[in-house]
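We give the entry.
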Amino acid sequence: MSIPTKPIGSFAGLMQALSQGEPCNLELQTSVLSPYSISLPPGFSLTGKDKDSCILSFCNGDGVGLTADNRVANLTVMTTPAARAIYTQTGLTDMGSITLSDLAVTGQVSIIIRGGTSTLNLVVDKLHIAACDCRRYSEQPQKYGVNVFQGALTV
């Protein structure tokens, strides 16, 4: 089933499109600066008309939160290197399919699920992470007496 595409030309247009109930593909036509993190509702996609001219920047904190059946493609996503550029939100039993393709990112891409989530199909293709500093994250898996830091792409 194909979802309709909605062209986005401003931050106000992006916020208005995110508040509608019907899933759609939000296609950035230009660069957009967001003062805070955004969350894609289930079924929504976020794409760019052209990866080189469509930059989604976040000046305070994290970037794009994913819920279920989301796709982020053909974009440049920028946060500070110490923030999460793309991350999953927790608490859903079935996250469906998450697709990340043809992305240039500054910041961490964090795909972490918690207890209670039983399904997630993750597809990652052509993901370039230019810079990331995730030393501040306190969640560190431990095995065989060794703590492991999260990485630029944490799955």
Summary: The chain has one domain: 5-154. The chain has a mean pLDDT of 92. The longest helix spans residues 11-19. The radius of gyration is 15 Å.
